[in-house]
Amino acid sequence: MSLAVSAIGQGLLWAVLGVGLFLTFRILDFADMTVEGTFPLGAATAVAAISNGMNPLLATLLAFVIGALAGLITGLLYTKGHIPILLAGILVMTACYSVNLRIMGRANVSLLGKSTLFKNHLLAALPQYFDSVVLGTIVMVVITTIVIYFLQTELGQGFIATGDNQTMARSLGINTDNMKIMGLMVSNGLIAFGGALVAQNNGYADVNMGIGIIVIALASIIIGEVAFGDLTLNQRLVAVTLGSILYRFVLLLVLKLGFSANDLNLISAIILALCMMLPVFKNVLNFKHILKRGLDTND
Amino acid sequence: MTKPLLELKDVVLKVNRNTPEEITILNKLNLTINAGDFITVLGSNGAGKSTLFNAIGGDLSIDSGQILLNGKDIAHDSVEKRTRFLARVFQDPKLGTAPRMTVAENLLLAERRGQRRGLMPRGLNHHLDHYKELTATMHNGLDERLTTATGNLSGGQRQALSFLMATLKRPEILLLDEHTAALDPRTGQDLMRLTNERVSQDKLTCLMITHHMEDALTYGNRLIVLHHGKVTFDAAGADKAALTTEKLYSFFAEIE
């Protein structure tokens, strides 16, 4: 029971990453590697700020701002510097590693004995693991609502159009460069925000905690899409959170099967690869189609 | 009706600048477009027709000369800024619409062409009745598919939608770049007829590139021919009405 609660709580906290990545991966339609750097950047920022006595809520919001700045740099390299997005992301991700070490002063900083969002007396009064469920739910409801509202505004529609058809967007007077920069900023802000949450939940920040983050964030998006099928854009955003929770249950299952936590990145990559290849398998394994074709006398 | 709306003066545009492959596409091109002109643009491949549109639209920057809109030089304005007065329909139906957005959403995007987009809710539902009426004028079933993603429409429907989007918010200048060329002949002719209706009803100023000599003769009040980056033929009003395909063919034979 407590394992299931823990999985739900973790799924909710990590879902922030899925929603953040959704903005670039699904809407702007490119893979932004920056997130591997901004996740630990958010964690480092929050942990350093809290260690220096900042209020945990402010520290978490500060992580969002710093993450957005990293996204701004990727966006400028990509749109104004004409560096391909994959490379622009990798450059900022690499640079973030050094920045994170600077912020933390060493590779791993503990929050032991420090105040965190989870030590708020309301959350601390809850049974074990329920703190992350409650906080995660609040965070995801707020973030998903804001994102859904934004996508339905005039500006949000311009943002969607930019990812959908750049030529058309420009011909309608939408500044596509600004839209991409904005998307990268919000996306990386959210990822850093998620990093700040996870660091406070774990009780430490580690400079290597960004490795494989893009796979985990993609997994929540893809698993949500695979599990729930045809959805509207708004429903898909909600599905990201559910996908993130499902993903935690899959990991739980894998650990139960006897794999160690060290195997998780390999397993995550395999799960994601399988989910992304599902459309191909569907065609290959479409027995219904094969049967029908076999019976069709015109063939 | 004879006030110059858009003037191109000695416009030079080169590609592959400062390389051995440098080519001059527009070579001191001069063109005065009056308000209300419906100009058909003819010319062989490489004559500079699409480049002319890209120069007006701002996708390509010019090397020298002036582009004046109501007397004001706009040659250095961004593509986004120029969309305040300019609307375009491309040849490729895929270029004019956002495939994952619905027909109604595409129309709504076009409604704010060139305007600031803020954080106000888009208000799609207020427009649906209007869009229903508007798309019904296309007589191709578009009005039944307002909530369909445009990626699922036929090429003809997509192109009709692109045309509606370009004219939804009245443009001062409408550029049609062979917008019926990718369609089957019947669908193409239907769209051509609708284009003509809309342009004359709304008294739009319009430039239309076409490879169909019949279309170029049938539609519009003025016909120009581009050759080697210059306007080599320009007939308006009665002169244009007196043109025939034979005369045009012999003219083309002369300049080639």
Automatic annotation (TrEMBL), chain A:
InterPro entries: ABC_transp_permease. Keywords: Cell membrane, Membrane, Transmembrane, Transmembrane helix. It is found in: Cell membrane. The chain crosses the membrane at residues 12-31, 57-78, 85-109, 129-151, 181-199, 211-228, 237-259, 265-285. One of its GO terms (cellular component) is plasma membrane. Its main location: membrane. The keyword Transmembrane helix applies. It comes from the Bacteria. It is a multi-pass membrane protein. GO terms for molecular function: transmembrane transporter activity. This is Branched-chain amino acid ABC transporter permease.
